[in-house]
Amino acid sequence: MENKKISQKNKHKFIIIIRHGEVDNPKRIVYNRDNLMKKEDIIHLSEKGKKQLFKLGLKLKNLKIKPIYLWVSPEIRAIESAKELRKSLNLPIEIKDELDEVKADGPYLAGIKINQWEKTGNPYDEKIWQKYQHENPGLVVLRMSDIFWQMAEKLKRGQAGILLSHGDPICWLVNYLIFWQIPDYPAAKKNFNPKKGEAIILILDKNNKILSYSLLT
Questions:
Q1: In the chain, which end has fewer C-beta atoms inside a 10 angstrom radius, N or C?
Q2: What is the DSSP code (8-state) at residue 43?
Q3: Contact 216, 14 (CB under 8 A)
C-alpha cells in the first residue's frame, strides 16, 4: 500500500476520513466529550475551522469524488464541521457513536491546560489516569474499524463515503488499517497524526481491500 494520487476509476470505492476543524478554545482547556464537560466549556468550531471544512468540501468536489454518506461523531465540534462540509457537498448528516472522541476526561477534570498537555500529555498512561477509566486504544480501534467496514460494505464501486471524527480515534484507526499495528502512543502519533481540518482518502477495491491512500489538506 502506498500514498499516491487518487485514481478516478469507477471500479474503486473511496472512504474519506476527516478530522474536525480548528476550534475556539479561549480557556485553553484539555477538552473531551461534550457530555463529560460543563455546558459552558463545550467546544465549538472557530471561524478558521469553518473555513477549513468549507474549503475541504470544495476540494473534494473538484476531485470529482461524490460522497453519498456523511457519518459524523456526536460531538458539537464534529457536527459543526459536517455542516460546513455539506454546504458544498449537499449531504445529509448521520450521527454515529462509533466515531466519537476517545473517552479521556481526566485532564479536563484535573484542570490541566492545553499548553501543558501538548508537551507531556498521554491519556493512555494507566499509572496516571486509571481512576478516570479512560478508553484504551484497543477499544477505540474496535469501534472505529467497525464503522469503517460498515461504510465499505454499503458502498458500491465508484461511490464514496465520509467518516468525520477526532484526532486520536483517526490516529488509531489509520495505524491499524495502514500499518497493521496498535503501537504505543508516541509511535502512533509519529506514524500518522492528522491536523484539524485534514482528510485521508482510502481507496478500496470491490472486495474492500485497501489499495492505496492519499492525504488531503
A1: C
A2: -
A3: no
